[in-house]
Amino acid sequence: MIREEPVQDHLLSILVRDEPRVLTRVTALFGRRGYNIRSLSVGSTEHPGVSRMTIVVSGDRGVVEQAMRQLEKLHDVVRIIDHGLEKFVDRELLLIKVAITPETRVEVRHIAEDFRGRIVDVGRHALTFEVTGDEGKITAFTEQMRPFGILETMRTGRVALTRGSNADIPAQVYHDGASAALMPAAEPREERARQVPNLF
Fold first, then answer.
1. Which end of the chain has the smaller Cβ count within 10 Å, N or C?
2. Nearest residue to 90 (alpha-carbon basis) of 11, 181, 169
3. What pTM was computed for the model?
4. Is the sign of the CA dihedral 58, 62, 68, 70 positive or negative?
């Protein structure tokens, strides 16, 4: 009997050139192949002209490796980082509006304090909180607020950075020695550097 590999979430960072329709091309690649994107965040980086996409994609290991190979073919992609192969730190931002009554106001605020949540808006019948943390913390806080009545939520999706430097992480963590993910983003792969020699 063949045991199927369980579907897991994989965290990828993709450094891309900041050009029109890059986001569309990347997400279309996942969509055409039926990959499920659970969250997607995009923002600028320390290098002008380069943006960082953080994607959480569901699938088995083969699905992720196939997606990375396809992404490598896109001219807009500078580097792909598979955070499953190295140590990383990740965070997510949650904005959540919770219904309150005179009886529940104090309890709701105390629970938010336990999660280091910050009140960003106060109404007569609702409080809006800002909470940052890893995915587990965000999910736990949401569940704590559910009995009081959640009126609205917005989650940014996960963002991540590799921890430390090459010197901090054992070489055996990687398949081919030191992690390319920890190289400066200003050094794209050679073939792309030839195509756009003065990008950085």
1. N
2. 11
3. 0.72
4. negative
